[in-house]
Amino acid sequence: MSAQESGRERSPGVYVRELRLSLRNNSGAYGFSVLITCALAMLNALTGTPNAMQILVFALGAVASFLIVELIATQGFRQSLGGDEQTKVVALGSSFSAVSISAGIGAAALCGLVLPVTLGWFGGSLSASMTYLLLNGLEMKIARRIEEARDLA
Question: Could you tell me if 122 and 58 are in contact, meaning their C-beta atoms sit under 8 angstroms apart?
Fold first, then answer.
């Protein structure tokens, strides 16, 4: 068997490589989409169908969470968010996202239970998103530590 044939057997096919690319580029957005959809549904279940103003404040709360976290992560928008994360770290960290998604939904539920309705829609999306983003960062840190330990072994 030639070296070229041997290399073909070990390397993934084009589809598998593109599947990995899709997972790497979409895993965070997928987790956030699941979170924000479930947070909306949770608040709807707890407070009833939102009116137009409540939908708007829900969206503003979610947007505000990204603004706050990006402000912190970039030190006032003076540093890049980067983009050089290892694929293995992103894949492993994303596999932990059930924790950050569940905690975010819980944060939204708490706001829906304790805040006045319209404020609950804002606070619910803000707290759900903030919880998700901050815990997802922790999940990525744990994944990085696991990958570093694997590299040392």
Answer: yes
| Cα 132 to Cα 27: distance, rounded to the nearest angstrom | 13
Count Cβ atoms within 10 A of the Cβ of residue 30 and give its class: 0-12 exposed, 13-18 middle, 19 or more buried: middle
Q: Are 138 and 52 in contact (CB under 8 A)?
A: no
d(CA 111, CA 128): 9
**Collapsed DSSP state (helix, strand, coil) of residue 64:** helix
81 DSSP 8-state letter:
-
Question: pTM to 2 decimals?
Answer: 0.84
Give tens-digit pLDDT for 77-117.
Answer: 888 877 666 778 888 888 899 999 999 999 999 999 999 99
| pLDDT tens-digit series, residues 50-73 | 999 999 999 999 999 999 999 998
Q: Which two tokens mark 67?
A: 């603004």
